[in-house]
Amino acid sequence: FHKQLYIFQRVLAQKECLLCKSEHIQFRCLVQELTPIHLSWVPMAFEAKIICDCPYGYSYPFAKTYQISGGTAVRFYNDSTCMEKLRPEMLVTLAAGCTSFAVKNKTTGAEMRFDNLPGSSLSIRVDNENQVVTEEVSGYDLYEHFNFVFLELEPGDNELVFTGTGSVTISGRYLYNVGA
User: Fold this and answer.
1) Strand 26-39 vs strand 132-135: parallel, antiparallel, or unpaired?
2) Whole-angstrom Cα distance, residue 142 to residue 85?
3) What per-residue string of b and e applies to 117-141 under the rule 16 or more CB within 10 Å gives b?
4) What is the pLDDT of residue 131?
5) Which tens digits make up the pLDDT trace of 10-58?
6) For residue 161, what are the contacts with CB-CB under 8 A and spacing of at least 6?
7) Do 78 and 88 form a contact (C-beta atoms < 8 A)?
8) First-to-last CA distance in the chain?
9) CA separation for the pair 95, 61 (Å, rounded)
10) What confidence score (pLDDT) does residue 21 get?
């Protein structure tokens, strides 16, 4: 039992956790110290020292899916309260025969484009924060088809225009200013 408790303590001490401040805000925190609390020499619980290393609070995860065909206009509201741009994750599922995809943020003027894509059905995951593009069905390297402009969303309304045929899911967490 003591060995299992020790292993649990070491694993938990290296993990990131999310703590809730209210019904809609979480904080990204790190467990710094984890000390067992004993009752009659038997470990029963833990006392933890937790450090928050980010000045922002985070919303619960969101995901919004849009069906696209030709040029589809969408108003996306970035609920973040800080002035930093939101760089969400996108999952783009293109229909067979669709050889190009674009999303233009008319609010910022930036346009992400994929041109001359293979004509088979593609599932493209774009991590805009870390600037990584992967194709999840066939494993194609899509960087040669990409213009290297990643989606950034201003706080408030963003007018997006999607070009292509299929669906797009935008997901992530909004950032909130919550203290000094």
Assistant:
1) unpaired
2) 25
3) beeeebebebebeeeebebeeeebe
4) 95
5) 555 555 555 555 667 777 777 777 777 878 877 777 777 777 767 778 8
6) 71, 72, 73, 74, 102, 103, 104, 106
7) no
8) 43
9) 27
10) 57
Neighbours of 65 (CB within 10 A): 11
- Measure the CA angle with vertex 175, ends 168 and 88; round to 5°: 20
Residue-level pLDDT at 34: 72
Residues 122, 159: contact at Cβ < 8 Å? no
Q: Which amino acid is at 54?
A: C
| Average confidence (pLDDT) over 59-67 | 93
Exposure b/e, 73-99, CB count within 10 A at least 16 = b: eeebebebeeeebbbbbbbbbbeeebb
Q: Please say if the pLDDT value at position 169 is more than 70.
A: yes
In the numeric block, the tokens 């599922």 are attached to 93
User: Secondary structure of the chain in the HEC alphabet?
Assistant: CHHHHHHHHHHHHCCEEEEECCCCCEEEEEEEEEEEEEECCEEEEEEEEEEECCCEEECCCEEEEEEEEEEEEEEEEECCCCCCCECCEEEEEECCCCCCEEEEECCCCCEEEECCCCCCCEEEEEECCCCEEEECCCCCCCHHHECCCCCCECCEEEEEEEEEEEEEEEEECCEEECCC
At residue 26, the pLDDT reads: 76
Phi-psi region of 4 (alpha: psi -120 to 50; beta: other; left: phi over 0): alpha
